[in-house]
């Protein structure tokens, strides 16, 4: 097992706090001490811009990953460029023909309107706290707290997000800390108390305990 002081190097695209977080978690948490070295060299990575990331999250709601990718591939061909202004010019029938439900079309239009009308303060997010950003995002139709939290983790790479509604985190904590017994939100918070201020990193490693392949949101 690699010592906490001998963590393998990470790429330039890794969050700046990643290795500090790993050292903290391995020192404070028995599960993390074993789990982190098993995934040496892997780390959280982001992709896309804010609008595209949120649009993909809406397209993927309540369908399989494979189906979501298929619909996204067709939808992505419609606008000349995947920007709010170009999405707002699309015809509803064309969006529906890409495989989008009427409700998802409404959600995507509302998302585009929020960005086009500066109802989300993208340029100010770096200075805003997590809850303020979540409040802005959940005002968009089709975006709930879980989606907003995934956005904070994967796009903004915020270090201390604890997505209590995430099924993967619930299952991972159950298996890693409670021998597979169901866990309550209060029990999840108790486990995560030693993770702070790096709950996002711990959550990412809990996901790896269930599926070693890292995901990009």
UniProtKB/TrEMBL annotation:
Q: Which UniProt keywords apply?
A: DNA damage, DNA repair
The yes or no answer to whether the keyword Nucleotide-binding is present is no
Enzyme Commission numbers on file: 3.2.2.21
Q: InterPro entries given for it?
A: Alkylbase_DNA_Glycosylase/TA, DNA_glycosylase, HhH-GPD_domain
Q: Which CDD domains match?
A: ENDO3c
Query: Domain HhH-GPD: where?
Result: 59-211
Q: What is the reaction catalyzed? A: Hydrolysis of alkylated DNA, releasing 3-methyladenine, 3-methylguanine, 7-methylguanine and 7-methyladenine
Pfam families assigned to the protein according to its UniProt record, in alphabetical order: HhH-GPD (PF00730)
Q: Which SMART domains match?
A: ENDO3c
- The molecule here is called DNA-3-methyladenine glycosylase II
Name the species this protein comes from: Hydrogenophaga bisanensis
């Amino acid at each position: 097992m690699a010592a906490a002081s001998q963590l393998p190097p990470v790429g330039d695209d890794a969050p700046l706090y990643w290795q500090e977080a790993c050292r903290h978690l391995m020192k404070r948490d028995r599960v993390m001490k074993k789990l982190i070295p098993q995934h040496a060299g892997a780390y959280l990575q982001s992709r896309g811009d804010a609008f595209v990331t949120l649009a993909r999250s809406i397209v993927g709601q309540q369908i399989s990953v494979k189906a979501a990718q298929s619909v996204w591939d067709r939808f992505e061909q419609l606008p000349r460029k995947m920007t709010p202004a170009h999405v707002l010019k699309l015809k509803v029938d064309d969006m529906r023909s890409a495989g989008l439900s009427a409700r998802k079309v409404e959600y995507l239009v509302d998302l585009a309107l929020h960005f086009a009308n500066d109802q989300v303060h993208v340029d100010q997010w770096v200075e805003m706290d997590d809850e303020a950003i979540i409040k802005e995002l959940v005002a968009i139709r089709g975006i709930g707290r879980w989606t907003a939290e995934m956005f904070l983790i994967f796009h903004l790479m915020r270090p201390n997000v604890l997505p209590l509604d995430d099924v993967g985190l619930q299952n991972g904590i159950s298996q890693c800390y409670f021998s597979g017994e169901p866990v309550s939100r209060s029990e999840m918070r108790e486990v995560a108390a030693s993770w702070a201020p790096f709950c996002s990193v711990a959550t990412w490693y809990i996901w790896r305990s269930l599926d070693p392949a890292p995901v990009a949101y």
